[in-house]
Amino acid sequence: AHLWRGVVEEYRERLPIGPGDPVITLGEGGTPLVPAPALSARTGAEVYLKVEGVNPTGSFKDRGMTMAMSKVAATDTEMVVCASTGNTSASAAAYAAHAGLGCAVVLPAGKIAAGKLAQAIVHGATLVAVDGNFDDCLRIVRTLAERYPVALVNSVNPFRLQGQKTAAFEVVDALGDAPDIHVLPVGNAGNISAYWMGYREYAADQDGLPARATRTPRMWGVQAEGAAPFVKGAPVEHPETVATAIRIGNPASWALAEAARDESGGWIDAVSDAQILDAQALLAREVGVFVEPASAASVAGLLQAAERGGVPAGARIVCTVTGNGLKDTATALGQVEIEPQVVAPDATDAARALGL
Ligand code: F0G
Predict the structure, then answer these.
(1) β-pairing, 33-35 with 46-51?
(2) Closest residue to atom 15 of ligand 1, CA basis
(3) Which residues have C-beta within 8 Å of that of residue 334, sequence separation ≥ 6?
(4) How many whole angstroms separate alpha carbon 356 and alpha carbon 353?
(5) pTM of structure
(6) Ligand 1 in contact with 223 (CB < 6 A)?
(7) Whether the CB of 188 sits within 6 Å of ligand 1
(8) Can you give the residue ranges of every domain in the chain?
(9) How far, CA to CA in Å, does 109 sit from each of 87, 98, 125, 127, 145?
(10) Which EC class, in a word (predicted)?
C-alpha cells in the first residue's frame, strides 16, 4: 500500500525544494478525480471533477501553502501574512499552526464565508477586517511584507504556484495523458496559471525527467459576471458576486492567466450568480459533490459553453471544483427549504413522515 505523503514529497523532483529543506505538510493533494456522468450527459463530453474540497483545509490552496510555508520555515521569519477571500487565510492559518509560525490575515470586512472565518480563528490566526475588497487587502499585505519582518504567502509568492501545479500532474497521472480541456474558476488568477505551468512541464522533457504527457489541454477559465476583469479586459473597481471566493477585480496573476488562456487556445468567460447557484445545486443533487459557489463557476461555465455549442463531442474534460461546500452553508441553504418534520421516536411515525 502506498501512503500519500503530500505534494512536496510526491512530486519533489519537479519542485524547487532541496534535500535538507523542511517540509511543512498536512498530507494535501492526492485528491479524487470523479467521473460526472450527469455532466457528460448534458455536454456530450467525458467530464471529470477534480475535487479539491477534500484537501486538509477544504480547498486547493493547501497545495500552494505546503510549498510556501516550507520555504518560510527554512528562514528565520516567524510570521506569515496574507490577504484573502477566505480560503487562503484558512490554509495559511492551519499550515502556520503546524509549522509553529504566527499568521496574520487581512480580509474584506463582511465578505468571508462563515466556515472559512471559523478556520482562521480556530487555527489561531490574527485577523484584520478591511473596509474594502480583496484587491485593497492584497495591496495592504504587499506593503506590510515590504516594511515588516513578515512573509507574504499569497499566490504572488512564486512557491504557491509551484505547489499548485501538482494538481495538473495528478490529473495526467490519473488519466494517462492530459485531458482535451481543463475548466476552472478564476479569481486572483493564480490557479489557472499554476495548472498551465504543470501541464506544460509534464508535456516536456525536463532536467533529465521524461515527459509524462503527449500534449497540453485548452484552458477554460470562468469568472463571475460581476467580477470579470478578464472578460472586460480591464480591472473591475467594485467586484460583486455571491461567489465571495472570486470576488476580485484586479487579479495579481493577470499576465500569467492571459498567457495560459492564449497559449493553450482557450478562453476566459463569465457566468451569472444564478448560473453558479444552479450548477452548485446540480453538483450536489446529481453528482453527489458539495462545492462552494466559486467552485461551481467552473461547471456553470462548462454548461454555458455546451448550450452555445462550444463543447467538442466526446472531448475529455476536467473541471476543478476548488473548495468544499461546507465552508459556506448559508449560501447553499439559501436555495433550499429545510424544515425536517419532527416525529415521535417510532419507526412507524418515521415511515409515515417519509411517505413510505
Ligand atoms: N475557488 C475558490 C474556492 C477560491 O478560494 C479561489 C481563490 C478561487 C477559486 C480562484 O482561484 O485566485 O487562483 O484564481 N481564493 C483566494 C483566497 C483569492 O483568498 O482564498 P485563483
Answers:
(1) antiparallel
(2) 245
(3) none
(4) 8
(5) 0.97
(6) no
(7) yes
(8) 7-59+159-333, 61-157
(9) 15, 27, 16, 10, 21
(10) lyase
- Which of 157, 184, 242, 246 is the best mutation target for the ligand 1 pocket, counting ligand atoms within 8 Å of the beta carbon and taking the most? 246
> Considering the domain 7-59+159-333 in this protein, what is its CATH number?
3.40.50.1100
Domains 7-59+159-333 and 61-157 share a fold: yes
245 Cβ below 6 A of ligand 1: yes
For 334-348, how does the pLDDT look when each residue is reduced to its tens digit (9 = 90+)?
Answer: 877 778 889 999 999
Q: Which residues pair with 223 in a beta bridge?
A: 270
**In the CATH scheme, what architecture does the domain 61-157 have?**
3-Layer(aba) Sandwich (3.40)
Distance (Å) from CA 245 to ligand 1 centroid: 5
Nine-digit cell string for 136: 485593497
Instruction: Judge if the beta carbon of residue 322 lies within 6 A of ligand 1.
Output: yes
Is 80 exceeded by the pLDDT of residue 120? yes
Q: Of all atoms in ligand 1, which is nearest to the CA of residue 294?
A: 1
Q: Which of 82, 85, 111 to mutate to test the pocket of ligand 1 (most atoms within 8 A of CB)?
A: 85
165-203 pLDDT, tens digit per residue, is 999 999 999 999 999 999 999 999 999 999 999 999 999
